[in-house]
Records
---
Amino acid sequence: MTYKYTDYLKTEAQPYMWCPGCGDGIVVRALAEALAELQLPPHQVVIATGIGCWGKADDYFATHAFHGTHGRALAFATGIKIGNPELHVIVLMGDGDAVTIGGNHFIHSARRNIDLTAVVVNNYNYGMTGGQYSATSPLTARTTTSPRGVPEPGFDVCALAETSGANFVARTTAYHVLQIKKYIMQAIQKKGFSLVEVMSPCPTHFGRRNFAGGPLAMMKYLKERAVPKSRFDKMTDQEKIDHIATGIFVDKERPDFLKVYRELNPINQLADQGGGNK
Ligand code: SF4
């Protein structure tokens, strides 16, 4: 049987609940196409989510799904992966879920190098709850909880994953649809913790307070301001504020958690094969 991208989607659940101009639907389609290109049987795929606009994405997938509490998607996903290592576990998180409320789980998942694929859609704010600032909102950006500007610098999600030990780290934007698919495919194929960060527009909240021109202006910004990291690194600090570094930042082969664990505990290898001390 050959799988089409629609075989991974609950098309009957569409249209999406997201606002017009939101980037979330673009990433759903790119992920479904990546799964089809890899020909992964839908019953071997688990989409794990937490809470937030992007956290609703599991509603639209015809794979297995686990919808957990805010900031805990990686903790649940870790349990799923260790319970059944044959599954492809893909964790969909917004910036709130991944590195604000869920920051600790994010750091430790990358450090442990659990074999998961995290797809973080970063729109710089808590869209679902009304546009409050998150740990990725840029310094001085306006949000509902910072009408005069955010007084703290935002996290660089990719740098956080890299520093914590992830095996694969890449960033693109909702404008660069083919790149989203390509990076997700590479991330799924990589053993160990993989991150694909997608910079995405939230025209309803973040855009309304920081962009003139609405959804189109936000997409134009992503198109024009996303540059390869090699070019970004040569920019002045002032230029960097208005640009987004994209590309693959990490692609390495550190042994993943389960491999190391099994080598240290041979008895567990036997248990996995049904012959252990049960
Ligand atoms: Fe998308 Fe923002 Fe609307 Fe949420 S509030 S669906 S993130 S545009």
---
Amino acid sequence: MSVPNHVAIILDGNGRWAKAKGLPRTAGHVQGAKTLEQICEDAYHMGINYLTVYAFSTENWTRPDSEVAMLMELLRNYMKNSIKRAQKNNMCVRVIGDKSGLAEDLRTSIEKLEQATQYNTGLHFQIAINYGGRDEIRRAVVKLADKVAAGVLKPEEIDDKKIAAELDTAGLPDPDLLIRTSGEQRISNYLLWQASYAELYFTSVFWPDFDKNELAKAVEVYEKRDRRYGLVEEE
Ligand code: IPE
Ligand code: IPE
Ligand code: MG
């Protein structure tokens, strides 16, 4: 089997990475953001066309206020600083998740980055912020219900395609490989609809230490898998 077209990553273990080094959790997030920049380049060089990472979940708001504030600041800086790099790498960036729950200035920075990179044809890079799979499905259901109420859609016309088209990932292929770092083996509300048939790969490496070699290992394992969709073997 060939290189996965779409890789999704639950980047986990920033806090534990920092703790193991006697550093504050925030140092783990700073290093994790650097890892992310590098992985985007490495993934594309390896032949991966779509990369979707989990940066902040709908549940992460319950973390201490200071950590939430620090993560939002990191994301703010990321949006502002990555326009240049994204252009240089021909990367198309899109944020998934409920943007209405984000601060207005962060939303503006996200829109600027998305608009500036929308026609780029290199890596399609999705960052999940204020994202939860259940919340995404709930928002899609509300949109469909609105259409039914407005009389432009019949309930019996709602099929998988119509649901997928209302998700934040509309237009994107489903992930082929889902990676989670740091030893946790949970989905944590990530891409619940889209990852239905993704191959799962777990590694104990903390996210800040995840690099090209670790990504290559995951891809190698994926390539050896006997990938079946509902019992139809891939050619
Ligand atoms: C992942 O690292 C980053 C985010 C969830 C924002 P964590 O912050 O979850 O790190 P651990 O799991 O506590 O080590
Ligand atoms: C999942 O990691 C969310 C992100 C990576 C953004 P968490 O560390 O928040 O998940 P749990 O709490 O261990 O399930
Ligand atoms: Mg964690």
